[in-house]
Amino acid sequence: MSEPFKRIIGGAVYGLAIILSLVWWPYAFVPLTAFAIIWMLGEFYSVSMGDALKPERILAITAAVLCFVLLYAHLAYGFPVRFMLVAAIPLIACLAMPVFRRDAGSYDRFAFIFVGLVWVALPLVLSPCLVFKEGEFDGWLLMDFFIIIWVADVGAYALGTAFGQKPTSRKLAPAISPKKSWWGFWSALGFGTAASVLLSYLGWLQVPMVHAAVLGLILSAAAVLGDLCESVWKRHFGVKDSGTLIPGHGGLMDRMDSSLIAMPLAASYLAIFSLI
Questions:
Q1: How far apart, in whole angstroms, are the C-alpha atoms of residue 99 and residue 2?
Q2: Domain residues of the chain, as ranges?
Q3: pLDDT in tens, 238-251
Q4: Residues 169-217: pLDDT tens digits?
Q5: Left if phi > 0, otherwise alpha if psi is -120 to 50, otherwise beta: which for 50?
Q6: Are residues 169 and 149 in contact, defined by beta-carbon separation less than 8 angstroms?
Q7: For the chain, what percentages of helix, strand and coil (3-state, to nearest 5) are there?
Q8: Contact 22, 131 (CB under 8 A)
Q9: Roughly what angle, to the nearest 10 degrees, separates helices 252-272 and 209-237?
Q10: How many Å apart are CA 98 and CA 74, to the nearest integer?
């Protein structure tokens, strides 16, 4: 199977999984998101820490999944929010684990446990806050986020490849990602903003047009930043991909990297203006 065909199939399956969980069959949202948390944290820890601190990693992943499930249960079924404190138990156990280790040689990698929780897990853990509207599941806002990010990525790739790879083209961050150009960055902003405004016009994104334009800019710029953040991480550890889950694309983090910073920033903007 050719590499371009692998990319098309892998991207299609990834996109259909998101559409399934947010629009077609909301019952898939919890298992698919829980899987994403587990798998992405696994990728992050494997690259950052190798085989070190496996019990601590399991406890951290358990805490993240518990927090996500209990937050969903609170929003969906009115489950008392105080029970989210249960997620602190494996987290505290994770903190305590190094105390009982005879060998402290791997302690310098312990910080990656919490970097993964904040950078990789937290946006997904809090995602239930974006999929409930007046007590009912409504995945369209989060779906809109993904559509805007995907359109921005496509625009950045298309025009960045066409015009940003010339010898005279200025690179966005040559020390981090040599192929990314300013052509790609401005294209991402233009395409993403246009997509956001169009979604607002169609009524899919239920925010005023002005806010839709700003939201498009935030999501597009943050998506580029998220991609660069993962590029720094991979370059530091000398890996090309975070994993091999999605043929032609690499790991799940390689597909979600643009969203990990974009979703929290976009949600914060909407919350500031009481739009969610």
A1: 50
A2: 3-272
A3: 999 998 888 777 89
A4: 788 888 888 888 888 899 999 999 999 999 999 999 999 999 999 999 9
A5: left
A6: no
A7: 75, 5, 20
A8: yes
A9: 140
A10: 33
Distance CA 167, CA 257 (A): 28
Cα gap 84→95, rounded to integer Å:
18
pLDDT at residue 249, rounded to an integer? 76
Q: What does the block give as tokens for 89? A: 């138990």
- Number of CB atoms found within 10 A of residue 19's CB: 16
Chain-centre distance for alpha carbon 231: 14
CB 207 within 8 A of CB 130: no
The tokens describing 26, both together, are 């909301």
Amino acid at 140: W
Read off the tokens for 29.
């949202």
AA letter at 136: E
Amino acid at site 57: R
